[in-house]
Structures are given as structure tokens and as C-alpha cells.
Amino acid sequence: MIKTLELFGGIGAPRKALVNLGIEHKSIDYVEIDEKAVRAYNALYDKTIQPQSVVGYNLRPDVLIHGSPCQDFSRAGHRWGGGSEDKTRSSLLFETLKIIRNMGVWKPRVVLWENVKGVLDRDMIHAFKDYLAQMELMGYVNSYKVLNAMDFGIPQRRERIYTISVLNGERFDFSKLEKKPTRPINEFLEVDADDIYTIKIPSMLSKIEALNMRQKNAKYNRFLDVIDTHCWTISTRQDRCPNAGIVKLNEQKYRYLTELECARLMGFSDKDHAKLLAEYPTRPGKKNATLYKLYGNSIVVDVLEAIYKGLFDMGTLNFKELKEEQA
């Protein structure tokens, strides 16, 4: 059995990946301060976890997964930084280091960190290098790579950096991850979406290139991308520009992605979505802002499945060794 600790756990994409793979596991704890995300996690996994901060936490997992807040690393955010001295949401990354140190002699075999690729930008990379250096001082060998969800079957152009740190081990070989052809976008789209998703706001209609005469390269113009073979990154809101893309209904009508479509494009099943919808019902005539946010802040489950499978296939994780360590 593999024991995991989920920090900044969101709605539990890492656990969903293990469930989908049929890997015997125990989530020894999940830590998340966002009350709505905690309720969503409880709904998906039938738990009664309470919101809690990662600060000062102490446990003994085999695998530690953390996806610290990305807003201050993101190219779409304020870019306030995420260094150990920055005191931003993204600097909570370094709380993970404190947690590992507090474990004493015991340390997780593998530490997985996911975040926006903006951490590699020139004005942000200092924090990332600091994190890698401190992991090395604790005995970890680091590997990282920017992965696109489209390479793992999901028609969403979502590029995120994944860092895998192995205790006293070899570098994780990302080139050996099992890739999958991108599935057709139509497999993820609803056939008859409700009219509330049709774009009617004049300010948004003006962002659709086909409906106005402005040139795409005109200064300050931002256009909404019409979805063809794939969508763009699912964010926490779809009723803004830019967003993940819009669906063409006819020559004059377009719509936003629905919450269910966003769930599917993040690797969650319709059954998962139904559980979250029961926890956060949609008000009549309204779009569900809570579900959009929960999905936009999650990790693509299919990418995590490939990483977990790689960890076992490459021998980085070994059930026999884990059993002996836990004995």
C-alpha cells in the first residue's frame, strides 16, 4: 500500500489518479485551507476532513504531493513572486520544505510538485532554484519538466511544470512517460448545452473576432478563441477574456464551456461532477462559479496517472520496499 499526503490538495486530483489506476493506497491526510475545496474533496471521497493550513504540519507519507498556490508565479497574475522571503500565497511552497524537515529521520520517498510554467521565467526562477537547492540538501534528486495535458489524451492545452524529487535515488526520466494521442474534443463537449451558456453580453460579443471588424493584431485587442481541436487552459472563470475558448453554435452564436465540460477536460468523470453538483447546486438561470473555480484550480488527472505509472514502472516506487519500510 502506498501512503500519500496531499498538501494544497484542492479537490483531490492526485487521489483520483490512484483510484483510476487501481493502485492500493491510503491518503493519510489531506491539507487544504479553502473550505469549498475541502467540501468538494469530502463529497468525492466520502470523508469528513476539516479545512486546515499546511503551516507546521507533521506526518510520515511515502509520497508527498503539493501544488502550492500559483497566482504569484502566474503570467496572468500579479507576479509578486514566491520566494521564501516573499510572504505571498505562492511562497507557501516553502512550507512544504519545513514539513519535510519536521519529519526528522523519516522522509517521503517521493515529493511531487505541480505549478504554472511561469516559475521558470527569469524574474521568478530564483524561487524555483531555491526550492530545488533545499530539496537537494535534504537528500533528494530533482527532475522537472513542463508537461502538456494534450500529450496525455486530454484536448486541453494546459502546460504545467512537474517536479519529482526522489530521496537518495536516481533522476526521474520524464522521457519514459506513457503518452497518449489527444482525444477528439467532441468527446468532451455537451450536445445540447443550456441557453445560459450562450454569450449575450455585448462586451464579450465584441471579443469574438468573427463578429466584428477589428484586426487581431490591433493594440490592446484580446479575442476569444473558438474551440476547434482543443481548448486552452481551463481557468477559474470562463466568462472573461481570455478564457479556455468558446464553442461555435452557428454563424452568429457562441457559448462558454459548461461546468461539466470543464470537469471532463480536467480528467474527472460525469459521476464525479454529479457529486460536486449535489454539494454545490447551480442556481436557476445562473452558471456555477464555485465549480468553475474548483476545476480550474485542479490538476489534470490523466497527467498524474501517467506520472504515478511511471514511478512504479521505473522502479522509483516499489510495493515490496514500501511494505518493508512500513512494517
TrEMBL record:
Active site: C70
Domain of life according to the entry: Bacteria
Keywords of this entry: Methyltransferase, Restriction system, S-adenosyl-L-methionine, Transferase
Pfam families reported for this sequence: DNA_methylase
EC number(s) given by UniProt: 2.1.1.37
Enzyme class: transferase
Reaction equations catalysed: a 2'-deoxycytidine in DNA + S-adenosyl-L-methionine = a 5-methyl-2'-deoxycytidine in DNA + S-adenosyl-L-homocysteine + H(+)
Keyword field contains Ribosomal protein: no
GO process terms (BP): DNA restriction-modification system; methylation
Gene3D superfamilies to which the protein is assigned, alphabetical: Vaccinia Virus protein VP39 (3.40.50.150)
An example molecular function term from Gene Ontology annotations: DNA (cytosine-5-)-methyltransferase activity
Entries under InterPro entries matching the protein: C5-MTase, C5_DNA_meth_AS, C5_MeTfrase, C5_meth_CS, SAM-dependent_MTases_sf
UniProt keyword Methyltransferase present: yes
Family statement: Belongs to the class I-like SAM-binding methyltransferase superfamily. C5-methyltransferase family.
Name recorded for this polypeptide: Cytosine-specific methyltransferase
Gene that encodes it: dcm
